[in-house]
Amino acid sequence: MSENKAWVIETHDLDRVYGDGDLIRALDKVNIRIAAGELVSVMGPSGSGKSTLLNVIGALDRPTGGDIFVNGENLATITDLDNFRARSVGFIFQLHNLLPTLTARENVEIPMTGHVPAAERGKRAKELLDLVGMADRMNHLPGQLSGGQRQRVAIARALANNPPLVLADEPTGSLDTANGQELMRLLRDLNEEQGTTFVVVTHDPAVARQTKRVLVMQDGKIVREDIIGSPDEEDLKMWRHSNLGKQILAGTELHLLEEKLSSSELKAVKKALSVANGKS
Asked: What residue numbers bound the domain in which 247 lies?
C-alpha cells in the first residue's frame, strides 16, 4: 500500500521504455501525486508521453520501472487487472467507443456486468444518463446521437461502477469548440458535485483552463506544473512560455515593444511575465 492513502495517484520514478534496439523512453522518472477530488490536465507536444502516462495509470500498460499506486494499491502487486480497472478506474477516449448496436442505456450497463446485480444495472444506467443530460436519449443508438451526445454517454459509462478515478484521453478532440466547452463544463460539474477525480490529457489550452492544475510534459518528463488562476493569469502564463515571451524576458525582442510602450510599461511587462507562474 502507498504510505499516504490520500493520494488517488502516486508515482515514484515511473519509467516506460519501448523497443529492443533504439530505445524510446516514453516516461522518464515521472513523479506525480494527485489527491482525491482533483481535476487535473496533462499537456505537452505530440510524443511527450501524455497518453503513455494515462495508460500506465489506468493499468492498460505496464511500466518498465518505478512504482505506481492508484487509490492506495500498488499496481505491480495486482494480478486481476480487469477487475481492478472495472472497480477503480473509468475511461473516456477521444473516440467514444460505444457499441453501435446497443442503445445508450445498454452501453452504460456493460461495465457493470459481473459487478452490479442485473436488477440494478438498468436503474443505475438511467440515473447516470440523467446526470449527464441524456435521459431523453437513453433508448437511442449511437448512430442516432450527435458527437457531443455520444461523449456524454461515454462519460456516463465511465462512471458506471462509481470509480474514484476517471481518465480522459483527448475527450474533446473529436468535438467542435462549443461541444468541447460544454463537455468540460460537465466534467467540472461532476468533479465538484460528485467528488470524482479526473485526469484529462489534452493539447488544447482552452480545455486545460477548465481544470484546476496542469502538468506539462516533454520528452517523457514532467517539466512544469501550473495552478489554474484567472483568465488574465492564464494568458500571461501562455505568453511567458511562448518563444516570444522567453525572448522578451531575455531582453532579445524588447525592440518589438519599445515603440509602443514607455520604459516603465516595458518594465511592468517583464515583471508580469516573470511572475506569471507565481514564481521567480
From this structure: 233-274
